[in-house]
Amino acid sequence: MFWLAGWYLKAWLFVVYLYRVIETEPWSFDFFPPIFRSPATAQLFYALPMLAGGIFLTRNIAYYRFSAWIMILSSAVLAVHQDTHNDATFVTSFWSGVWALWLISQADEPAAVLSVHAKTLAALIVGMIFAGGFVGKLTWQYWNGTALTHIFGAYEAGMLAEWIKHLPVSEHATTFRALSRMLIVCEGLLSLSPFFPCQFLVCACVPLLLAFALTNTIWIYSVLMCLIGMVFATRLIDSEIR
Amino acid sequence: MLGVFRRPRSPGTTCLYLLLACLFIFYATVPCSPHVQAWYMQKFHPGRMPFLVWAPMQLVPSMYSFENRLEIKSSRGNSTVWTNHYPMHFLFFRFDRSVMKAGGPYDVELISQYRDVILKTRYRVLWSGNAFDVTRSVDGE
Q1: Contact A228, A209 (CB under 8 A)
Q2: Complex ipTM, two decimals?
Q3: What is the total count of domains within chain B?
Q4: How far is A91 from chain B (nearest CA, A)?
Q5: Contacts of A80 in chain B (CB under 8 A)
Q6: How far is residue B141 CA from its own chain's centroid?
Q7: Residue A170 in contact with partner chain B when CB distance is under 8 A
Q8: Is the pLDDT assigned to residue A242 strictly greater than 90?
Q9: Distance of residue A55 Cα from the nearest chain B Cα, in angstroms
């Protein structure tokens, strides 16, 4: 449910973009193979996950497996398609789809063992995703706030940008420095998710993920919803066992 | 966490653990090696490496990392745009394509930096009447 909600959160943007803009005013970059330049490919794989909605109507394990493969395939295709590779939604959706497929494939495993591995793998995936951002920020330009100043200056959107606009210009550098360091620390903590107790995933990870919207717009949830859903699923598995 | 490896696990579980371990090890090398930084940075520059090498790198998360900026030159003037981890996103999503049709060609230089490692790639974007044709040249070629 969370995965689908995140995938279609920006449907208002993607439907117009995929079904009108790239048809009438396409880009053509021959680095991409023809099939990954084709608007039809992007249109098909953006719509395909709607089939995964069928899991709410059945308890058929084969359908669950089919849905997980759709999630993985659609995410992978759109993550490398010419017109959609610029969106992290498809990266996080891919990894949470991998976790979902793994979970379904372990249906015959003892519940206690399944629960332990489910929580550990979810923590590793969350940790891995944020480790990617964390290591990429281990530069002086990020630590002193310069990089964030430039990025948010370009986008000028979101709660953070709106809030900073109301501050005196003389305070912008200090503010961005503090925010940048906070972001690095938070991502560092999330990178270490696998090494914290399992309760960290739900009690700390989820609030941190939800708080990311403060530094961005609510559309960041298209990237984060699938991860939040994955974390909640580990909680449900625990509840089922008890 | 290490205790979990004493639990029984299926081959599929082991494979997933190994894959994630490899990614963590790779991430650990990024801050330590300029060679890894230069190689990894190419993921932000479509066209610098074969598609079959570039494509799997897109599934390796790198949110808000590295410093990327676009230097854009056209008949409408020059501009510098700082971007996040998807520098081409700005061109694909943020620019009004109907306006771009008349202002080309656009000479775009994508510059990525991580500490002292800098990578530059030049692209040219031109509306041909049917599509925005993108061609690229590599710094030094």
Answers
A1: yes
A2: 0.89
A3: 1
A4: 5
A5: 51, 54-55, 58
A6: 20
A7: no
A8: no
A9: 23
